[in-house]
C-alpha cells in the first residue's frame, strides 16, 4: 500500500505537469479554480450531510444491534455468579451487590470496598476484579463486534473499541436506567463517530467528482475556452508551473481525505492507517501536514 501511495503521488504530479504544459496557463488556471471550488464545496457538503445521512439511514439499525448485544447483559447477576463460583456468595446479598452496581465511581473500586468490609484479602479481591475486567473489556466487546458483523459492518467492527470507562458507564446505565439508554450511550460514544467519519469521506469523494463534472459542463457550454487557441511557449511553461501546483493540490486533497478516514476508523484498519502512510517516501509529507 505504501508503494501505491508513493506511485500515486508521482503519477499525479507527472500527469498534471504534462496536462498543464499542453493546455497552457489560461486553460490550466480555469482547471485549478474548478478544483478549488470543487474541494471547498465537497468539504462543505460532506460536513453538512454526514451526520444527517447517518442518523436517517444507519443509526437506528446500529442501535438495534447494540441492543441485541447487551440484551442478555446482567452485571449484577454476573458479579453474583462469580462470587458463587469462588464460594463467596453466602457472604453477600443481592441487595448489597445491587447497591454496588448503582453507586457512582469505578465498579472495581466499589466491589473491592464491599469485599474489604466483609473481610476478604487482596488476592481474593484482585481475582474477582480480573474477571470483572475480562467481562467488561472482552466479553461485552466481542458481543457488540459480532452484532456489528451481523449488521453488515464487519469492515468497521474492529474499529469500534469501547474504552473501559465507557463500558463501565454502560454497565452502570444497564443497572440504574435501562438497556436502551445504555445502548444509546455506546452508540454515541463508540459507533457514531466512526460511521459518521466514514460517511463524511464517501460524501466528499462523490461531491467532489460531481462538482468537477458540473463545472466542466458549465465551462464547455459557456464557450469560455473557445477563444483560447494559440498557446505560446511562455504560456506553456506557465501552464507547467500551474500544473505542478495543481498536482500538489490534488495530493493534498487525497492526503486530507485519507487522514479523515484514518481518524474516523481510529487507525484500526489494515488496508490504510497512519502507520502505512509513515512508511511512504513521498506521500508522508502530504499526510503528516494534516495528521500532525
Helix content: over 70%
Order of helices and strands: HHHHHHHHHHHH
Number of domains: 2
Number of strands: 0
Structural class: mainly alpha
- Estimate the global geometry from the Cα principal axes: elongated
Organism: Ruminococcus albus SY3
Protein name: Colicin V production protein
Could you characterize what this model shows?
The protein folds into two domains: 2-57 and 205-291, no CATH class; 59-193, no CATH class. Helix content is 80%, strand content 0%. Helix 6 (122-150) crosses helix 8, helix 8 (164-176) packs across helix 9 and helix 10 (233-264) packs across helix 12 (283-291). It has helices at residues 2-57, 59-70, 75-85, 94-102, 107-117, 122-150, 154-157, 164-176, 179-222, 233-264, 274-278, 283-291. The protein is elongated. It has 292 residues and is mainly alpha-helical. This is Colicin V production protein. It comes from Ruminococcus albus SY3.
Amino acid at each position: 500500500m505504501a508503494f501505491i501511495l508513493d506511485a500515486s503521488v508521482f503519477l499525479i504530479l507527472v500527469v498534471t505537469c504534462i496536462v498543464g504544459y499542453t493546455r497552457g496557463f489560461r486553460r490550466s488556471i480555469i482547471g485549478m479554480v474548478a478544483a478549488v471550488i470543487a474541494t471547498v464545496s465537497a468539504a462543505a457538503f460532506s460536513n453538512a450531510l454526514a451526520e444527517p445521512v447517518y442518523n436517517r439511514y444507519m443509526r437506528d439499525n446500529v442501535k438495534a444491534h447494540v441492543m441485541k448485544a447487551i440484551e442478555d447483559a446482567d452485571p449484577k447477576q454476573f458479579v453474583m455468579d462469580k462470587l458463587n463460583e469462588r464460594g463467596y456468595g453466602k457472604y453477600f446479598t443481592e441487595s448489597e451487590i445491587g447497591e454496588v452496581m448503582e453507586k457512582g465511581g469505578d465498579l472495581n473500586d466499589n466491589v473491592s470496598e464491599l469485599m474489604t468490609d466483609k473481610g476478604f484479602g487482596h488476592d481474593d479481591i484482585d481475582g474477582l476484579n480480573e474477571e470483572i475486567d475480562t467481562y467488561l473489556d472482552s466479553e461485552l466487546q466481542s458481543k457488540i463486534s459480532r452484532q456489528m458483523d451481523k449488521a453488515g459492518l464487519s469492515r468497521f467492527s474492529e474499529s469500534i473499541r469501547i474504552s473501559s470507562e465507557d463500558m463501565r458507564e454502560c454497565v452502570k446505565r444497564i443497572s440504574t436506567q435501562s438497556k436502551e439508554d445504555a445502548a444509546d450511550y455506546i452508540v454515541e460514544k463508540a459507533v457514531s463517530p466512526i460511521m459518521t467519519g466514514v460517511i463524511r469521506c464517501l460524501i466528499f469523494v462523490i461531491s467532489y467528482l460531481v462538482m468537477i463534472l458540473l463545472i466542466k459542463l458549465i465551462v464547455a457550454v459557456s464557450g469560455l475556452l473557445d477563444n483560447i487557441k494559440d498557446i505560446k511557449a511562455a504560456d506553456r511553461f506557465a501552464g507547467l508551473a500551474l500544473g505542478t501546483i495543481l498536482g500538489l493540490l490534488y495530493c493534498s486533497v487525497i492526503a486530507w481525505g485519507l487522514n479523515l478516514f484514518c481518524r474516523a476508523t481510529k487507525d484500526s484498519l489494515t488496508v490504510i492507517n497512519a502507520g502505512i502512510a509513515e512508511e511512504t517516501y513521498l506521500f508522508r509529507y502530504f499526510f503528516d501536514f494534516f495528521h500532525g
